[in-house]
Amino acid sequence: MGFGDIRSPSGLKALDQFLSDRSYIQGFVPSQADVAVFEALQAPPPADLYHALRWFNHIQSYDRSSLPGVKQPLAQYGPAGGADTTAAANKSDEDDDDIDLFGSEDEEDAEAARVKEERLASYAAKKAKKPALIAKSSLLLDVKPWDDETDMQKLEQCVRSVEMDGLLWGQSKLVPVGYGIKKLQINCVIEDDKVGTDILEERITAFEEFVQSMDVAAFNKI
Fold first, then answer.
1. How far apart are CA 184 and CA 151, in angstroms?
2. d(CA 53, CA 45)
3. pLDDT of the residue at 121
């Protein structure tokens, strides 16, 4: 369980892989679990670890002392946590709201069932009042053609034809790279929970007749 030495290359890679399909270390909102891992890092991850860097910049933007939950030892967080980390996230949410969603397993009589239903209804009503946090990022992509004979207008049309929920294309320009070759530099805004750089790269490089490669030139939280 855990990331090992989180400041080592293997630990950073484990963190990046762990965050490839997650926005936070535990649960669906930032918590003291994120603070514990953030403080252990002490410095931003390398730029090629997109998921870890996105998460680091996101947590850095918060007043971390105000985040909910109870900070645990670093070894309690990370891959291989499985059901344990999920249970810890649920426990953090329950402590935050001072609500025991599920009574003792020994209290399965009618009165216990009624109390549990009331607590679930109260919890749902309280959560409904909280505004949903939508984490977004602004990306600057470099899309490179095969050679100077590639139709760059057609290449851009292919890139913009990529449509996903949570993806919005912005401005673009052609930037010389040498020997008469130009690359397409294009902005986009993504919702972090819906669009990842990996799937974006996969969709764009699928136009292999025009696209040689895609790189993330800049990654900024909004």
1. 11
2. 5
3. 85
| CB distance 29 to 38 below 8 Å | no
Give the 3-state secondary structure of residue 195.
coil
Q: Quote the pLDDT of residue 112.
A: 85
In the numeric block, which tokens belong to residue 192?
A: 């972090």
Domain that holds residue 109: 102-128
Backbone CA torsion sign across 75, 81, 84, 90: positive
pLDDT in tens, 108-156: 678 888 888 888 888 888 777 766 678 999 999 999 999 999 999 999 9
Residues 167/186, Cβ–Cβ less than 8 Å: no
If we measure between CA atoms, which residue out of 186, 188, 184 comes closest to residue 167? 188
* Residue 216 and residue 143 share a domain: yes
166: tokens are 């949570």
- Whether the pTM exceeds 0.70: the reply is no
AA identity, residue 6: I
DSSP 19: G
Residue count (the chain): 222
Cα separation of 142 and 213, whole Å?
8
Element (H, E) at 9: helix 9-18
Q: Tell me: do 73 and 120 sit in the same domain.
A: no
Unique residue bearing structure tokens 């020997």: 179
Q: What is the pLDDT of residues 69-108, one digit of tens each?
A: 999 998 888 876 433 434 444 444 455 555 455 555 555 6
30 contacts 71 by C-beta, under 8 angstroms: no
Rg (CA), the chain: 22
User: Count of domains in the chain?
Assistant: 3
| Lookup: tokens for 145 | 């053609």
